[in-house]
Structures are given as structure tokens and as C-alpha cells.
């Protein structure tokens, strides 16, 4: 449950099986895993007098302090696990501070979303945390690690869709939704800085319109070309939110991010709504789907990633019963996982 940000079965296997095996040869990684497990128990049990997680955390930090010339999997994995631990109970204002160290590690070691093996798995764990940090900023910040660096070196970003689809993996296609959300945060931040801060980043109105239209097309393609594992397997018409069930763990979070990204783009550029009557151009439709996914899929891997999407969706809902259910859902996530939500 602590492996927040994991969107695929492969990554869950890596974190649940391979990292503990690697930890036998890496004391810093072992201390990091024990520390985050202790922190989760402390958070869930509201233990005010327990300092086990802090002592284990400090032990991991001490063991990571020696020269960092070895660019090995152990070091990268330990850094990401410790970043998860730091964000467990951090205030939202401090999230980006905790993410900065991981961003620097991935950048320096040139690890990306296609590096393979454990490095790739921990990268996507970090990437989703980075996206959540950008979402919290409410349009003022992009991800710390720019999306271009999520791809293999010198890969043109216009080939990203082809790259993700060519893997033939539903897990990587789910991660493509994370990438698209990062691109939306990047676009909105660029436009906000251009308009409000006068930053000369080239994001004038024509460029913004063009970038948002192209990103909307890519987002539509994500839904259109989903592999068979990612669409919902069953849905019910319920009030106030529909219940939408998924069979694949990666489908839960990736579909929530698809709807979250849709809301972000529609809010930033209302012209994307066009003249059609498709529900995909409705804020409220996307918001209700986000909430319905959380209610119908209580898997912890889904709920850990539902906090920011639920917050974004909840702000669009005006009826008191809807708002109350969103608040109840967020409080449930915090109680179940220990992750700071309220």
C-alpha cells in the first residue's frame, strides 16, 4: 500500500517482491522500507509517541550519505521510498520540497520512464507524486522533472504516443495517462506565467490554443485506443455518482487521471468544448466519474492516487450531498492508508 504512484501490476511485483530481495544487499534500502512501513502504521494508528519511523529514516539517511558515485538501483530505489515516506504526513505546501531531491537524482542519473527494470518502476512511482504536486499548485507550477525527460534521451515529444503504445503493455499505456496529465500541468503553468508574470516563454494566445488542441486530441486518443485491460468492466447508474468498476489495478488510477486531465484542459481552454454534445466536454460529467471510480474501487492502490483527482472534482460539485460524499471519501482514504488527505 505504501508504494504510492504505482499504476501497474509489474511495478507492484517489483516493489512487493524484488525491492525486499534487493534490500538484503542494501542496508539503506532496508532501513527505508522499514521506515515507511513504520510511518504508515503510526499514521493509521494515530500513534503520537512512536518514533520508530524517524529513527529508521535517520538510519537510512546516514547510510546514503557516503559518496554517491555509484549510480545503482539500490540508491535510486531508497531515495524514492524515502520520498514517499516524507510525503506521507507532509503538508501540501511542503510536497515539492520533498520531491526536489528525487527529481535531481533521476535527472543526474538519466533514469526515465523507459529505463527498464526496477529503475523504471521507481521512476513511475516518483512521476505520479510529481504530478500530484503540480496538481496541488492549482495551475501555478509544472512538474519538477519536465515531461520531456520522462522519455528516452533525445526522443521528440511528438513521438510520445507512439512510444507508449508500441510497448504493447497496458501498464505502460496507463502510465501514458500520467504523462498526459504532466503535459497539461506544464501547459497551464506556462500560460499562467506568460499572462500573470509576463514570463517570455512563448505561450501567447495562438500558441496556447494550438498546444491545448493538440493535447486534447492526444487525450481523446488515449481513451479511444485503450487496451482491453483498461476500460471499465461494469457500471451502474447511481446517485449522486455512477459506480464504475475496473478489473485491472492500472485502469483505476489511469482513468481517474484521464478525467482529471480533461477537467484541467476544459477549464484552461473552454473553446475545446466546441459545439458538440459529447459528455467528454462536460466538467460535471468528468467530476462525477472521478468520484464514482473511488467509491466503486476500494483497492488501496487506487485510493492512494485518488486524493488530488477527488479534490479537483469536488470543487466543481455544488450540491451539499455530493460535497459531503467527496469529503467522506477523502477522510476514508486518510484513515485507510495513513496518507495525508484532509
Descriptive account of the structure:
Its main location: nucleus. GO terms for molecular function: DNA-binding transcription factor activity; transcription cis-regulatory region binding. This is C6 zinc finger protein. InterPro entries: Fun_TF. With 342 residues, the chain is mostly helical. The protein has a domain at 1-138. The protein is 63% helix and 2% strand. Strands 1-2 form a two-stranded antiparallel ribbon. The longest helix is centred in the middle third of the chain and has 27 residues, at 170-196. Mean pLDDT is 88; it is low at 1-9.
Can you tag this structure with a few keywords?
single chain; 342 residues; mainly alpha; two-stranded antiparallel sheet; disordered N terminus; nucleus
**Total count of strands:** 2
Q: What string, H for helix and E for strand, traces the elements in order?
A: HHHHHHHHHEEHHHHH
| Beta-strand residue percentage | under 5%
Runs in which pLDDT lies below 50 for 5 or more consecutive residues are 1-9
- Spatial strand sequence of the major β-sheet: 1-2
Subcellular location: Nucleus
Keywords: Nucleus, Signal
InterPro entries: Fun_TF
Signal peptide: 1-23
Amino acid at each position: 500500500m505504501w508504494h504510492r504512484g504505482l499504476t501497474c501490476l509489474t511495478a507492484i511485483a517489483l516493489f512487493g517482491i524484488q525491492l525486499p530481495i534487493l534490500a538484503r544487499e542494501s542496508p539503506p534500502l532496508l532501513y527505508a522500507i522499514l521506515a515507511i512501513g513504520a510511518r504508515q502504521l503510526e499514521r493509521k494508528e494515530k500513534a503520537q509517541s512512536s518514533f520508530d519511523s524517524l529513527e529508521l529514516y535517520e538510519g537510512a539517511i546516514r547510510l546514503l550519505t557516503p559518496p554517491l558515485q555509484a549510480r545503482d538501483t539500490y540508491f535510486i530505489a531508497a531515495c524514492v521510498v524515502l520520498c514517499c515516506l516524507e510525503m506521507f504526513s507532509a503538508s501540501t505546501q511542503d510536497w515539492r520540497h520533498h520531491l526536489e531531491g528525487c527529481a535531481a537524482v533521476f535527472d543526474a542519473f538519466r533514469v526515465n520512464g523507459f529505463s527498464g527494470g526496477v529503475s523504471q518502476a521507481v521512476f513511475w512511482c516518483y512521476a505520479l507524486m510529481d504530478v500530484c504536486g503540480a496538481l496541488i499548485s492549482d495551475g501555478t507550477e509544472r512538474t519538477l522533472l519536465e515531461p520531456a525527460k520522462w522519455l528516452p534521451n533525445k526522443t521528440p515529444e511528438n513521438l510520445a504516443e507512439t512510444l507508449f503504445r508500441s510497448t504493447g503493455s497496458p501498464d505502460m499505456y496507463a502510465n501514458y495517462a500520467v504523462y498526459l496529465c504532466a503535459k497539461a500541468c506544464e501547459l497551464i503553468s506556462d500560460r499562467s506565467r506568460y499572462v500573470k508574470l509576463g514570463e517570455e516563454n512563448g505561450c501567447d494566445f495562438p500558441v496556447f490554443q494550438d498546444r491545448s488542441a493538440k493535447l486534447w486530441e492526444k487525450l481523446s486518443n488515449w481513451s479511444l485506443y485503450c487496451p482491453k485491460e483498461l476500460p471499465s468492466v461494469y457500471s451502474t447508474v447511481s446517485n449522486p455518482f455512477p459506480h464504475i468498476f475496473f478489473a485491472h489495478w492500472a485502469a483505476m488510477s489511469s482513468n481517474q487521471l484521464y478525467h482529471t486531465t480533461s477537467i484541467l484542459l476544459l477549464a484552461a481552454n473552454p473553446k475545446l468544448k466546441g459545439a458538440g454534445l459529447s459528455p467528454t466536454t462536460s466538467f460535471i460529467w468528468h467530476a462525477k466519474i472521478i468520484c464514482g471510480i473511488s467509491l466503486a474501487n476500494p483497492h488501496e492502490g487506487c485510493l492512494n492516487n485518488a486524493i488530488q483527482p477527488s479534490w479537483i472534482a469536488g470543487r466543481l460539485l455544488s450540491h451539499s450531498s455530493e460535497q459531503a460524499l467527496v469529503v467522506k471519501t477523502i477522510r476514508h482514504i486518510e484513515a485507510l492508508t495513513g496518507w495525508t488527505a484532509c
